[in-house]
Amino acid sequence: MLNTINRVAVVGLGYIGLPTAAILATNGIEVVGVDVNSGTVDAVNRGEVPFVEPDLGVHVAGAVSQGHLKATTETPSAQAYIVAVPTPFREDRSADLSYIEAAARGIAPQLQGGELLILESTSPPGATEHMANYILELRPDLSLDGSDSRPALLVAHCPERVLPGRVMIELVTNDRIVGGMTPEAAEAAKELYAVFCQGEILTTDAVTAEMAKLVENSYRDVNIAFANELSVISDKLGIDVWELIRLANHHPRVNILQPGPGVGGHCIAVDPWFIVAAAPDDAQLIRTARNVNDAKPLWVVEQVAAHVNSLGKDDVKIAALGLSFKANIDDLRESPAVEIVSNLAGRAAGHHIVVVEPHVSELPSKLADIDNVTLVDLEHAVEQADVVLLLVDHDVFKDLSPSDLGHDRVIDTRGMWSALAG
Ligand code: SAJ
Fold first, then answer.
1. Which CATH architecture has domain 2-199?
2. Residue in 229, 263, 332, 338 to alter for ligand 1 test, most ligand atoms within 8 A of Cβ
C-alpha cells in the first residue's frame, strides 16, 4: 500500500522530527516539515540545522537542495503524518499531551480518509488512542475501521529509539517497534519505516509500543541509578568507584553502567515517571531509581562545597567543565551540569565559577544572570582555577589530565580521566 505514499508531513522539527524528515527525504519521499517556530522553519528552508547532531546537516542540506524537503508553519495535506512533538510532564508528573493535541488540530482539517497518522513522541500508555479519539471528535465523518461507511484513518505509534549524537546512524540501523491501533495501521507504518530503516521492524498494538519505549528508558535509568548509588557508597567507604566497576564488569554476566553527576536529557529523566503515573502503587523500583538519579546533582554540589571549604579561601575559582546533559552534544535540557553550577553559585556566593562549554556561545537563561558565573574558554578556565570540576566528558577535555592539572584540585564526576588512565 505504501508504495503509493510519496508525500509525508512531519509535525515537529526537533531532535527527532528533523532527522526523520531528512532521512525520508534523502530516500526520495517528498517531505514537508511543520513547526510552530518560524526560526526553525526558515533555517530548514535554508538547508541549515538549528542544533548540533553529527551528519544531520549534510542530510538536511542535501534534501533541501534536491527539493525533497521543505518546511512550513502550516500543516499541509499529505498521505502520511508523523507527529514528533514534545510530551513533557506537568508539575504533578503526569504527561502533558497538549502539543500532541495541537498537532492533531492542525492535521484534522487536512484529512480525507485513508491517511496514515503516526505518533512518534514518547507517550504515556493510551496517548495514541487519545490522539486518534481527539481527531475523530474533530472529524466525526472519519473512523478507525471504516465502520458506518466512514473512511478509515490508519493510526499507529512508532517510538523513536535513537541516541542523541548517533541519530543519523541509529535511525537506519536500530530495530523499530511499530504499534497500530489496528493491524492494518501497523502494517502501513511498517512499510513507511522500511523506506529507510534497515533494522527489524516489529509490529504490535499501540499501547504495547508506548510501554516498550518507556520500559527501555526506565531499564537504563534503573541501571544508571545502581551505578550512581555505588558511587555514593564507594565514596563513604573510600573506594575508587571507577576501578570497582571496571573490575566487577570482568564478570561475564555483569555490566554496570557509569556513575555521573546525574541523569539528564528529555527522555530517561522523564519517561519513567509516565510508568509511575500509570501504576503508582506498583512502580516502586522505577520510582526509587528516579529519586536516586535526581538526588545525584545535589550530592555533587555537597562534595564541591566541602572541598571549597577545606581550602579556607574567600575567593575560590571553580572551573566547571561542560554543561550539556552528556558528551559531545549541545543539548542543555534537564542537564545535571546546569543544575550543579546554578546550585553551587548560590552556595558559594563569594566564589567565582568559570564555565567551559565549547558547544554553546552563551550561558543558558538559568545561569546567565548569576553574577559569579561566567562562560570562558578552556585555557582561561583551568589556568588559575583552585578547583577543576569535570561535569561532562566531552572529547575536547580528554587532552587535559589530572597530573597536568594537579590531582588535588580535580573533581571528576564522570570518571573520564580515571577511564583514560585505566
Ligand atoms: N548516563 C550516565 N551513565 C551511563 C549512561 C548515561 O550517567 O552509564 C547519563 C548521561 O550522561 C545522560 C543520561 O544518562 O545525562 C542519558 O543519556 P543516555 O546516553 O543514556 O541516553 P539519552 O537520553 O541520550 O537517549 C536515551 C536512549 N535510550 C536508551 O538507551 C534506552 C535512546 O536510545 C533513546 O532514543 C532516547 O533516550 C530517547 O529519545 O528516548
1. 3-Layer(aba) Sandwich (3.40)
2. 263
